[in-house]
Amino acid sequence: MKLVSLGSLLVGLWQLLKDHQLDAWKAALTQVAGLSGWDSKVTRPENMLIEEIVKDISRKLNLNHSFLNDYQGMIGIEKHIEQIQSLLHLESEDFRVVGIWGMGGIGKTTIARAIYHKLATNFSSRSIILNVGQEVERAGVYHVKNKYISELLGEDSTSSGLSLKSTKALLVLDDVCHSNQVKDLIGTCSNFGEGTRIIVTSRDMQVLKNAEASKIYEVKEMSFKDSLQLFSLNAFKQNYPIEPYVDLSKKGTTFEVGATEMAEEVTASDGDGK
Q1: What tens digit of pLDDT does each residue of 58-110 get?
Q2: What is the DSSP letter of 243?
Q3: What are the beta bridge partners of residue 201?
Q4: What are the alphabetically sorted keywords of the record (predicted)?
Q5: For residues 238 and 268, what is the distance between their CA atoms, to the nearest angstrom?
Q6: What are phi and psi of 29, to 5 degrees?
Q7: Beta strands 215-218 and 96-101: pairing type?
Q8: Among 175, 133, 130, which Cα is nearest to 148's?
Q9: What's CA 135's distance to the chain center, in Å?
C-alpha cells in the first residue's frame, strides 16, 4: 500500500479552492489544532478513559441546555451577549481580560452567567465564581483562587503536574470589589494558557482598569421599549399590555435609574395578570 502524507493531500486540495474557502479552511484547521483532547497513556485503563470522555461531553451538553432554558427569551439579553462576545475576540489565541461594568442590580451577573453558559464549550476548562468580593472577605483570597484552579484543572491537578498554562480556560469573576482582589486572584497573563478569556464584573470602573481589561462593556439601563415588554410578559403573558391597561402599564413601567430587570419581574408578577 502506498502511503501519502496528509500535507501533500491538503496542498493538492488547496489548489482547487478559492481564496475565501482556503482562508476558512485554514482558520478551522488552526482552531482544531488548538483543541485539547484525551491522552490514552495518561488515563488508564480504557474504561476509565471512556468514562472521562462521557462525563466531559455530558457536562458540555448540560451547559448548553442550561443556557437554552435559563437565558433565551430574556428581554435584551441577546444584545448584551453579542456585544460582549465581539469584545472577547474568540478567534484570537491571545490572553484577554474583558470587564463588565454597571450599577448594582442592573444585570451584570445575569449577563456574565449567560455568556459563561453560552461560550463554555469553546474552552478546554471553565469556572465561574460569583460574589467574589463577599467570598474573599468570608474565606480569603487563596480559598477563592484554589476554588477556580481546582475547577479549571481538576481535583487531581497537583498530582498530575498540570498548570493553568496548559489549558485554554474561561474564567468569570463576578462582583469584584477591590483592585487588589483581581491582582491576587489572576496575577499576570503569563500564568494562563493561550486563548484564555477572563471576564470580570464590577460596580467600580477603576477595578476593571486596574485589572488591565482590554475592553470594558457598560451595562446601561433597559430602554423604555424593552422595559414595557418585560413588564407585559410578566403581567399579561404577552409582549404588549392588554386593553384597558396600556396607559396604566406605561405609567407603571419606570425608566428611572433605580428600575432593574429583577424589580420589574417581581412587580409585574405580583399583578398576576390583573
Answers
A1: 666 665 555 556 665 577 788 889 999 999 999 998 999 999 999 988 889 98
A2: T
A3: 100
A4: Signal
A5: 12
A6: -65, -35
A7: parallel
A8: 130
A9: 20
* List of residues 6+ apart from 58 with CB closer than 8 A: none
Q: Which residues pair with 216 in a beta bridge?
A: 99
Share of the chain above pLDDT 90, in %: 31
- Averaged confidence pLDDT in the chain: 77
Per-residue model confidence as pLDDT tens digits over 124-168: 889 999 999 999 999 999 999 999 998 888 755 444 446 888 889
Closest CA to 97 of 4, 169, 17, 13: 169
User: Which residues have C-beta within 8 Å of that of residue 195, sequence separation ≥ 6?
Assistant: 34, 92, 93, 94, 95, 123, 168
CA dist., res. 181 & res. 152, Å (int): 19
CB-CB contact of 169 with 193 (8 Å): yes
Secondary structure of residue 105 in the 3-state scheme: coil
* Largest distance between two CA atoms of the chain: 81
Span 201-214, pLDDT tens digits: 999 999 999 988 99
pTM for the predicted model, two decimal places: 0.66
- Strands 169-173 and 197-202 turn out to be parallel
Which pLDDT band holds residue 269 (cuts at 50, 70, 90)? very low
DSSP 152-186: HH-TTHHHHT--GGGS-EEEEE-S---HHHHHHHH
192 neighbors 169 (Cβ within 8 angstroms) = yes
